[in-house]
Amino acid sequence: MLEIKPVFNALLRSKAGAVMLLIQIALTTAIVSNAAFIINDRIDYLSQETGYPEDEIFSFTVKSFDPNLDLSQKFEETETMLRNIPGVENAGLFNASPLSGSGSATGLSLAPASERGPDVRAAYYQADENALNILGISVSQGRNFRADEVIVSQTRGVFPLVVIVTRTLAKELFPKGDALGQTVYFGSDPLKIVGIVELMKGPWLQDSKPDNVAIIPFVSASTFQHIIVRTQTKQRAAIMRQIEDLMLEDHSKRVIIGLNAMDVKKAEYNASDTLMLRMLMVLIIVLLLVTALGIFGLTVFNINKRTKQIGTRRALGARKSAIINYFLVENAMICSVGVTIGSIGAFFLGRVLLQHYSIPALDNMYILSTALFVIAISLLSVLMPANKAANISPSIATRSI
Amino acid sequence: MLSMKNISKVYQTEKVQTHALRDFNLNVDEGEFIAVTGPSGSGKTTFLNIAGMLEPFTGGDFMLDDVNVGTLSDNQRADLRNQKIGFIFQGFNLIPDLNLYENIEVPLRYRGIKSAERKRRIEECLEKVGLASRAKHLPQQLSGGQQQRVAIARALAGKPRFLLADEPTGNLDSLMARQVMELLEEINREGSTIIMVTHDSELARRAPRNIQVVDGQLADFTLYQNKAMDEIAAKAGQPAIEA
Fold it and tell me: Which of A14, A308, A317 is the closest to B81 by Cβ?
């Protein structure tokens, strides 16, 4: 039978160990639930879909130092050379690489710059009609750019008239209606939305709006030029190894820098998040381990302290199961108070973290599941020593020492 | 009601076999008050432990109220102990974190007795040992004699057929020892069967029946008067085992 009242009364009369354990359980619950939530949030972040076949894409930068070179013409030849490499699907000039941590952003508005109107921040890529194919992305509504819509220019004298946007950006610009066919303004230049893609991340995953992205059909070859290449599956590493030689063969007065596979570059960009994730995981494991050991240790200590008492209880007619129950009930009491305090603590800790760091509001499910998990660990930790206690011989009661 | 036939108890270590009891025979009738004496290490406590089912015996037959103790499981022994036997220990063995009321309640809870009935019995027993006003006190707030009276109350509360007392006055001064002894005698007069292990020969003499354990065997007090038994008693120092 469960002895709730006497266990409770006995606990109240020798509180010290129980209170220490209770504090430990409360802290563990508060910290682990928040840490688990942050870990999950970071895992979601790190494993989010970007829209790109990241393991097929790489990028590099070409620094040209031949003053007599016609850059536009040379890069057209270079693009053709790159596309003809066996294993290359497509390649082209870009102003920035997705997921790389560097790029361009602007405010797109519904009215020209002269008339003040609401504007929506968006990252943008400038490239030709091959852009979507190079990035492995398809249009879900509307169409891709036509070749004749692409402006190739060394100046901004002529600006394109069309744009392709992501679904998220389209919705933010035109929350009520269909964005397709509408005009938005890049400064004072009007751009008609001709196509919408479902998902295409910008250069900064940590941006508050990483999904607001536009592609503008504008190519302006420069002496510091980004090129993005998409290869056939599993061909990327081999092609990356030969790319510098091929580029220099194509034209010798240039330097190839920043050769990066897309997924590797993304991992570098996210390195601090990955580190935090791992540290939090270690923290959680250590905390749970320390708590489990604490409970185990306290129970062992209590059993050693109460050997005679346990023997006496057995002599007075306690079955082994009654002894195990005693310790389980005692532990469950400490633990339930501990997780209750811990859950309240977790809630407030979550609010503090929310206020001071860019962390979403703690989901209460995390508190609940952590509390249940801590209770489970706690009961498991007490089971082994309690079993040992149940095996104490009742004859110990008649020993004088 | 209690019958032991050829009971033996062997403690086995890696190299040594120690016979704590051998060919131990005893019959106890209802209402008896038996004092068990004997030198240190003679097997008194082992006998008491086996009689109280606190430890298993190695050989022989032990019947308790027509139940063959040797065939019982651990749980059955625990239940039987709880129902039939009340223990009084030399060191009182009260649970320090429980007050007097809760201490006496322990065996009643194990028996599954309802709260109201528990309360009635506990109050009755506390009254009997003269500590009714101190139900809420903790054991350490009482003197040794008072603590032993609480332990007696705890043993009585379950209305056991047997009271097994292991040196009940061993930790008490003579005045308190006498009070405790008087209490035991009163309990015996009311019908309880008592088996009391003691060192104190004066105390033992007050019991109607005395038995002596010597070298793991039983010697009846009447026989102890004989010369032959004096010789056995003289040898008693040899195997020093206190279980």
Answer: A317
